């Protein structure tokens, strides 16, 4: 049968070769796919290049230098005015002193004018850039529709898988070896030098899965006898802002299983009201709960045994009532003006003030009678560029949002040396997009995170 087919084909080919054609044969090719818009791609590349050109670190430095100049001139003006008031003789010396004050005022007014102009320019640039980025995003999404073979999508998926695989490998490696981790301030730490963070050790929805977005949980570093394994939980049950109780669990397994003993300990029957909890940044120490008092720039200490509340006023100008929150580019976490933290030495409060231009301020809380504010340190990190803070061995650490899977511990401030580090590069692998509170437990060196209704813990790795 095969031979019978081949012979006619050969004959046909031979016949075709012997009969010369008087006409030229043309083949018409019709492409069913849309033509790729190279001009749009070129326009998108130009737009991205212009954005990179317009937004430079020098623009930020220009604004910071003007702010610094104004910050230094104002105290000098105050000194000159005080000198004029103190030593004005009504004659030549007074005239000269007044001229000095006038010159200082003129310089300050010039700085303010330049600062206003620069701020307006930056606001305009931000608005224009935001609009361009939205347009650019829409153009890129349109261009992606031409990728009918899913080549680009496949590359992105492969890249994401490689990243996840590397993170998984690093997590396993970091649990056993911390020798190649970044150099971090040691402070006065009995555990050694803070090197890294493990992958998630515990992740649970607890007793109320999906019910309360904001909250905090952890352990008491100095518990009463017989309560060493107890855990506590605070849920912001009123509009994601306020709470009036702390819930106790006899162990970690009881918390995971949702078996609360002895249950809720009420601060007040009303929620919210005076001296109840405002914001998710809560800690427990020596059988007392520390938190931001409702509607006040104060720290409250609620004693779980006596059911009494002690108040501590923070410095004048402290921002509260959601005026100085933790933030990232997409959102700010409401009522996170005050952050309470515990470490091996006790309780700390992290906040910001008007006079410190929004930078983080750190104070030791002395849990005496009465409750009082101890030594204070001033940092150079802007609070609204931070998503959370925690303390380990007298060192303040700050985190920032990288993406939905990653948070970075990027900053440290050593209270022993005053040394600041802005480039730690320690990454936390998140189970959920937002870490809304972060507490360090010196009892077991765990970081307790509350993340979008879930409780997650990480091990702090020391050398």
Record keyword descriptors for this entry.
alpha+beta; disordered N terminus; 4-stranded antiparallel sheet; 463 residues
Terminal CA distance: 80 Å
Radius of gyration: 32 Å
Largest sheet: 5 strands, antiparallel
Number of strands: 25
> What is the helical fraction, as a range of percent?
25-40%
Individual helix count:
6
Unreliable segments of 5+ consecutive residues: 1-17, 174-181
Integer average pLDDT: 85
Gross geometry? flat
Strand content: 25-35%
Structural class: alpha+beta
Walkthrough of the structure:
It is a single chain. The radius of gyration is 32 Å and the shape is flat. With 463 residues, the chain is an alpha+beta fold. Strands 18, 19, 20, 21 and 22 form a five-stranded antiparallel beta sheet that branches. It is 32% helix and 29% strand. The chain has helices at residues 2-18, 38-54, 57-87, 92-144, 151-176, 252-257, and strands at residues 194-204, 215-218, 231-235, 242-243, 245-249, 263-266, 277-278, 283-285, 288-292, 298-303, 309-313, 326-327, 332-333, 339-343, 346-351, 359-366, 372-382, 388-392, 395-403, 406-414, 420-421, 426-429, 437-441, 446-451, 454-462. It contains six helices and 25 strands. Residues 1-17 and 174-181 have low confidence and may be disordered. α2 packs antiparallel against α4 and α3 runs antiparallel to α4 (92-144). It starts with a helix and ends with a strand.
